[in-house]
Design goal:
The chain is an alpha+beta fold. It is built from 2 helices and 2 strands; from the N terminus they run ααββ. The chain has a two-stranded antiparallel sheet. A hairpin with a 2-residue loop joins β1 (48-58) and β2. The longest helix is centred in the N-terminal third of the chain and has 18 residues, at 7-24. It is globular, with a radius of gyration of 15 Å. The two termini are 22 Å apart.
Length: 76
């Protein structure tokens, strides 16, 4: 099995997501959980961008549609 990419970072993020779920439970709108992620990531001093728009390239051609990432932690 190959080594996981960004293993330590993912472990930290999953732990924070689990904390949010323990605190808020289920049933809220998605935006509530996103706002809670912002709080946790700021407290953990994790740099991130929210709602980032990226170009998508296919076989050397930039497609007309964009990819919108909810969050991009550590610019990765």
């Amino acid at each position: 099995m190959s080594e996981l990419l960004f293993k330590d970072e993912v472990f930290k993020l999953v732990g924070l997501c689990m904390e949010i779920h323990r605190e808020l439970g289920q049933g809220h709108d998605e935006v509530i959980y996103k706002d809670a992620l912002v709080v946790e990531w700021q407290r953990a001093k994790i740099p991130f961008t929210r709602e980032r728009k990226d170009e998508v390239t296919y076989k050397g051609v930039i497609l007309p549609q964009f990819y919108f990432a909810d969050f991009v932690p550590w610019d990765k």
